[in-house]
Amino acid sequence: MKKIILGLLAIGTLTLAGTGDNIKTLKEVNYKVSWEKLYKTNPEIENAISKFYTLDNLNYNFKSEVEKMTPEEAQFYPRVMNELYKYFTYKIKTIYYLSPTVVKADVEIKYPDFSKLDKKEYIKKLDKILKEKTGKTYDEYIHMSVLTDKETTTKYNKVLSDCEFEVIKQMLPNLKQEEYYTETVTLKGTKINNNWQFEGVY
To answer: How far, in Å, CA of 44 to CA of 194, rounded?
Structure first.
């Protein structure tokens, strides 16, 4: 599950962040564009990228991936993504003009790195929440399913999933900026019917 979520984030699950002066625009040798046009077009591109980076758009683009998940994962995924989305930021680093209707943009993205969550603290919080809900610690709850020698029930998985989500929700705000994952991705934009559209990684 963690691998799936991080994979989706790596191509741009982000909230809005300031851009403006942070943009450095380069002109490709084989395509000349006036500075006047740049000042007009850059805001259009910024706006198009902000529309690309909405939670609804992300969920739509990866609907097929969600369909491959188990029922438990499919239920857990949107809640975790909604929570992570609160902390995502992006910054447009460079826009390259390839033609009048095609650009590529280097975008720096930052989001919480699950691997940086303190494991001992995670289990401690999970123990507390599970104890409140079930009367059992994490080890006791997991051991209970092993002893039954049966497949875990939907109710069993939902309780565990709810508790894990609550722990993640509590711990994410405490992650420091140096514990965020940072990556630069390149997106491709195409002007169609006088509107810029970004479809994914270039």
So the answer is: 10
